[in-house]
Amino acid sequence: MLADSGSVGEARAVLDSPELPAGAYEPVSFAAMRAYLDALASKSPEARQNARRVILSAVEQDKLGAGIAVEALARLGETDAALTLADRTYGRNPLHGPDMENLFHPSTAAMRRDPRFRTLVQRLGVLDICRAGKRPDFCVTEDVPVCRDIARR
Known about the structure:
Layout: H1 8-16, H2 27-42, H3 45-60, H4 66-75, H5 79-90, H6 109-113, H7 115-123, H8 126-132, H9 138-141, H10 145-152
């Protein structure tokens, strides 16, 4: 996402572009993206709370993918909401849910610092997979509990 590279203004300009084809985005998901960008730009607690509310509402209405929402919430510093949504979204069988790749993107680093992240990835079987093979890329740059667990093999 353009906003993840620090170009919030550019991302907002793309979203506001008159060249955006009519119907390119469903209105509820469009509102969630707008609220997310507003919160990133303003950094105010009120904008962040509004973004959390709008994003979670869009997910509940099946208008925004949970993986995108998890990343957006984590980037906004809404770690509790991001972890709660990830836990609910990825269910008991990760092979039959959304792609978990977003849990390992730079935008979700705040989640990985939280002890609940370890519980989540252990339940999903990710720890066992990592212990049996290569450490995740984020473990090269982040000193987080889950990386120490993986290193213990």
